[in-house]
From TrEMBL:
The keyword Repeat does not apply. It comes from the Eukaryota. This is Translation factor GUF1 homolog, mitochondrial. It is a peripheral membrane protein. It is found in: Mitochondrion inner membrane. Promotes mitochondrial protein synthesis. May act as a fidelity factor of the translation reaction, by catalyzing a one-codon backward translocation of tRNAs on improperly translocated ribosomes. Binds to mitochondrial ribosomes in a GTP-dependent manner. It comes from Toxoplasma gondii TgCATBr9. Gene3D superfamilies: 3.30.70.240, Elongation Factor G (Translational Gtpase), domain 3 (3.30.70.870), P-loop containing nucleotide triphosphate hydrolases (3.40.50.300), Translation factors (2.40.30.10). GO terms for biological process: positive regulation of translation; translation. The lineage of its organism: Eukaryota, Sar, Alveolata, Apicomplexa, Conoidasida. Belongs to the GTP-binding elongation factor family. LepA subfamily. Belongs to the TRAFAC class translation factor GTPase superfamily. Classic translation factor GTPase family. LepA subfamily. One of its GO terms (cellular component) is mitochondrial inner membrane. Residues 200-385 form the Tr-type G domain. It catalyses: GTP + H2O = GDP + phosphate + H(+). GO terms for molecular function: GTP binding; GTPase activity; mitochondrial ribosome binding.
Amino acid sequence: MCREFFLRLRSPPFSDLRSTQLPIKVPFRPACVSLRGSQAPELPRRSPGLLVDAARWREVSRSLKPLKNAQKQPISSVKRHTPRPLRRQVSLNGPLQSSFRLLQLSSPDGSRDFLCSGVAIDSPVKPQVCAFPILPGFHPKNPRHSSIDSRNLSLFTGLREWPCRLFRLFSTKAQVVGTEKGNSEERRLRLQAVLDGGASCVRNFSIIAHIDHGKSTLSDRLLELTGTISQGAKAQFLDSLEVETTRGITVKAQTCSLLYRHPKTGVDYLLNLIDTPGHSDFSHEVTRGLTVCQGAVLLVDGLQGIQAQTISHFGRTRRQNLERLLVAINKVDLPAVPEQIPSVKASIAALTGEKEEDVLAVSAKTGQGIDDLLQAIVERIPPPEGKENAPVKGLIFDSWFDAKKGIVQLVALKEGVLKPRMTLVAAHARKAIQVKEVGILHPFMTPTKALKAGQVGYICSNIKRTQDACVGDTVFPQNQIGEPLPCFGPPKCTVYAGVYPELAADYEKLQVAVGRLLLTDPAVEAKAEVSAALGQGFRCGFLGILHLDVFKERLKTEHGVSVLVTSPTVPYHVTPKKKGQPKRVVCSASDFPDFFEQVEEPMVEATLVVPLKSVPAIQQLCMERRGEELRYECMPMHTSSNDSNPQQDSVLLVYRIPLAEVILDFFDRLQAVTSGLVSFDYIDAGLAPADIVKVGFLFNGERVDALSFLAQRSRAREQVSPLQS
């Protein structure tokens, strides 16, 4: 049995493909289609015999479970048996050759839908479209017992049909892992030997940098060069959240253990890498990562030089008393960067106190200088200190929920040896933890016999409730509780908003989703509240507007809950009019009292790096936002007569501004007046008296608290005027 489909292409990107219709021969049963190329061609939403509905791609792809196990040789079938989504990819043999996009197809009569996974093929010609049969029983929503038959795989270019050999198969949730080198017995024995050794062969470090300076790309190269993942793996491998892939930013610190052999000594080392976010809204993730490290790699863009969050992250390393800081200039493969390196090194030396000759030059994109960086990590960052013969003592610094293993906790073991079946106690929470499994992330959860002092790994236990995860707590053996380790503590939320389900019936679903996200993001505060207009929901605290947006998007993409979010506010400290009553922290307009003695608002110290020509406009904007200038410093950049795009002189400005003026559109205004050439970061700067009033709304004579907001008295009428018209 053979059916023929016609795939209509619009502006095909293939140089040797000219026809507007491609007959796709599918033996046995209609099945899957894959398009080769860096990007799939633009397709019409509907055409005869074909349905490509982009709006449903994400919905359908969630139900397709990627394959879990891989075989290194070509096989006749690959069985699907994974009961849950995994970040895995089948690797049959050969390197990855290109990227693919998921397609949803239907038969000509529209009665059946088929889901397409990307397939790379080996054939005598450059492949364009390939098809392979799906055995009976396959369905995207029930893939546990279905299989893919590769014996009759064929390629049709429009001129001739070619036999093909299947060697890659993956879904949209797949990632490239498991090269032959990575799966070899020799490598497994090397890893076990390092784990059995002492802390002298362990290095714990973080990568920190300003936004878009190349942290995640550098992590990719480190994973590739140490054989942890295959060459050609998906970009930003450690950015596993869908919101990170969609937005192209890192929002969660990710940990991975790398096995590295020093080229000069031949000694194997276990490098525990923590890739951190760059945006200021996720600075708590950076602090948590630095807490368990002995060193860090500060990455600086060779074109942009030192930026606002470069300065901020350097300050965090000093506050954490980090033992060693390595500084690397990134993007040296760009033509203009080599001429900028001397001035960038001078700026780095002035900021950090590092010697210019100790600053490394790398290209995270091409891998240039990465070998030198790996050697510097081993040679300059000290190993962790700890005694294996002492009682277990470890810091829990992260946690998440796994559908199969339950709540998983990341622990940095300071002393002792941690094994399964041990019973631990959290020092502050006094929660008993029965350890079921221990292991490392390499790059996925890899069980081990034990974790030893100085190592970073995960533990699976009997914990069932998300509030018992004990992030930031110290664990000890039962009946041997000692002095807790210094912990990072919960961050101070700066933005509050109400979060309500769009449908009242989804409240319980929202409750579960919020609990799961609080497990992975302890920086969020959540307290149940009831609104007369919006029903049951939560009053949530965040570290910024971006943090709020990411939380809302994760509720939608990871848990399928659509929510309504009220206007964000900052926490005001209100002194009651009646003497003797304590100050109140008000986070919403509905809780703001009608009578009070004084109101104090949170202030921030904003750091801006802007072009010299934009300084007057920036100063005017900061004055409009009630800002007070604290610092003005020139940051000259090296220029060259041969440089077609020389760097402009930059100015470092520091202002003290009310947080309420920053959280809404301040950064957008900064981008507008500087044509996008601004770097911005801020930290807490205490409280200051403020003249705040509550703006309410009446409908049919009744007050609607859900629409109320707080405003500066001098600007309240200005904000209300557009609403009246």
